[in-house]
Amino acid sequence: MIRSITQLKPAEEIEQLLDGMGRVFIIGCGTCVTMTRTGGLPEVEAMKDELSEKGKVITGTTVVPVACDNLTGEILKELQSMIKQADALLIMTCAYGVQTIARQINKIVIPALNTLFIGKETGASEFNEVCSQCGTCIIGETGGICPVTACHKGLVNGPCGGTNNGKCEIDSNKDCAWTMIYNRLSELGRLDLMRNYQKPRNHLGEPSPGKFMIPT
């Protein structure tokens, strides 16, 4: 299961962002942040208690089904009376959810979370980054394994000199990405793909802000 992986901002940062705003409405999300336990119902309630102890008036709380869905605006209309009383909305969702709500409601929005990466659940309560959305996907030549995210150094032309018995030199508990790529391509009979040279990555990526038009 793929999720936006988020992390709660430090309490000091949230307090600073809410400085001068005495009345707050808190919004969580029922998908990614509920799964990662950073913005579901328990976390929203905990934030409500924490801010109340610091003297904030919480005009209301809600956990919308999908914060990044355009229907969220319609759902929040039912809570307009409580939202109008607030000086700001404290939003415990990924950055996309924050922006979606900001476009639909004429209120100051404060993100309570930092969005880290796109992750896949690999174990109980464990998510590993599977895509950094770099815009230069090469997994067709690496057996479906992304070296940009699977390798600590993001190497795209083979392993570094520190790999040891198939393990990463930075994290000895982590399999070397290029060992995994070699094994996968070997199983598929396509080791020839490892001879393909990948051009140096453009770490600046595409010009910002990004834009994509669906071909007609």
Would you kindly provide a written description of the structure presented here, covering whatever features stand out?
With 216 residues, this protein is an alpha/beta fold. It has two domains: 2-116, Rossmann fold (3-Layer(aba) Sandwich); 132-195, no CATH class. It has eight helices and seven strands; from the N terminus they run E-H-E-H-H-E-H-H-E-H-E-E-E-H-H. The chain has helices at 11-17, 32-35, 41-53, 72-77, 80-84, 95-104, 147-150, 177-188, and strands at 2-8, 23-29, 57-64, 88-92, 108-111, 113-123, 126-131. Helix 6 (95-104) links the parallel strand 4 and strand 5. The longest helix has 13 residues, at 41-53. The protein is elongated. The model has no long low-confidence stretch (mean pLDDT 87).
Give the gist of this structure.
Helix content is 28%, strand content 22%. The protein has 216 residues and is of the alpha/beta class.
Defining traits:
216 residues; alpha/beta; Rossmann fold; 2 domains; 4-stranded parallel beta sheet
Gap between N and C termini:
31 Å
Q: Which regions contain 5 or more consecutive residues with pLDDT less than 50?
A: none
- Strand numbers in spatial order across the main sheet: 3-2-4-5
Q: How much helix is in the residues?
A: 25-40%
Structural domains: how many: 2
CATH superfamily of the largest domain: Response regulator
Mean pLDDT: 87
Overall 3D form = elongated
Task: Give the class-level CATH name of the largest domain.
Answer: Alpha Beta
Q: How many DSSP helices?
A: 8
For the report, how would you describe the main beta sheet? 4 strands, parallel
What percentage of amino acids are in beta strands?
A: 15-25%
**CATH fold annotation of the largest domain:** Rossmann fold
Oligomer: single chain
CATH architecture tag of the largest domain: 3-Layer(aba) Sandwich
Global structural class: alpha/beta
- Can you write the helix and strand succession as a string? EHEHHEHHEHEEEHH
Q: State Rg.
A: 22 Å
What is the total tally of β strands? 7
